[in-house]
Specification:
4-stranded mixed β-sheet, 290 residues
């Protein structure tokens, strides 16, 4: 790089941890921690360089810590990032012996001229989405309430799933670095990006747009994973609540010029055009009332 700029991000995995506690499965939650950080810096065009983790627990159980770090390591491999260190803090009285919190910190670099600031997004640009792997790492306070209120058993298999509900919900957050970074390096097609996290589509897509612009998306253009219909029916939630809480099957969104649409769709497997940039305020989801 001629003029490298460092981009950093830090995040955790929220109350998804409580499902890991209940399942006593800790080998994937570290992938979530990495994904939440590297996907955020990727949205600015940065290539992840290194990652550090922070684990706080009531009692350091070597087997559990090993599982957590394995997940972090797997996530770093997927992101092409070095895992250079971290901190494990034993804090009795702050956490129960079988509980912990997990956070991460990622640093990446991008050529100054290639930083994606979103200021070049304009009316008429198309929005291209990359699918999510599931609920990812947001909305789990609501998920847990729905499951508790519905008196469901996390360890049961419910239709239409082929594995237990808790396994479905613990599906790791998808890491988008290998999907997006080659496109950023080889072309100038991408004008803006959004990592769909807390607040769902309604909050995250507008963040990638300059002032004065909005967007319209059409849900019929992408596959909505069964977990979202399951949760919506369980809680009798409105479409507005669903799109304002969950990713609804979309984990990452790119804004591109119409002339670059075919190139992007060809380069990123599974990607689909879901809408366009408009002069309306905020996000309009076709068929969903405010």
């Amino acid at each position: 790089m001629n003029e490298p700029v460092l981009v950093s991000g830090t995040d955790g995995v929220g109350t998804k941890l409580m499902l890991a506690f209940q399942a006593d499965r800790h080998d994937t939650i570290g992938i979530d921690a990495v994904a939440m950080c590297v996907n955020d810096i990727l949205a600015q065009g940065a290539e992840p360089l290194y990652f550090l983790d922070y684990i706080a627990t009531g009692k350091a159980d070597p087997d559990r810590i090993e599982q957590i770090v394995k997940g972090i390591s797997d996530g770093c491999v997927e992101a092409g990032s070095a895992l250079i260190g971290g901190e494990t803090a034993e804090m009795p009285g702050m956490y129960a012996e079988d509980e912990y919190d997990l956070a991460g910190f990622a640093v990446g670099a991008v050529e100054k001229a290639k930083i994606v600031t979103n200021e070049n997004v304009q009316e008429g640009d198309l929005l291209i989405a990359i699918p999510s792997s599931g609920v990812h790492s947001n909305g789990f306070s609501l998920v847990r309430k729905l499951v508790d209120d519905g008196e469901l058993n996390y360890h049961e298999i419910y239709e239409p799933f082929k594995r237990s509900l808790i396994e479905e919900l613990l599906t790791p957050t998808r890491i988008y670095v290998k999907d997006v970074l080659p496109l950023l390096k080889d072309t100038d097609a991408v004008k803006g990006m959004a990592h769909i996290t807390g607040g769902g589509l309604y909050e995250n897509i507008p963040r990638m747009l300059p002032d004065g612009l909005g967007a319209t998306v059409d849900p019929s253009t992408w596959h909505r994973l069964p977990i979202f219909a399951f949760l919506q029916q369980l809680g009798q939630l409105s479409d507005r609540d669903m799109y304002g809480t969950f990713n609804m099957g979309i984990g990452f969104v790119l804004a591109v010029r119409p002339v670059d649409e075919a190139t992007v769709l060809e380069r990123i497997d599974g990607s689909v055009t879901i809408g366009k940039v408009t002069t309306n305020n905020g996000l309009t989801v076709k068929g969903v009332t405010s």
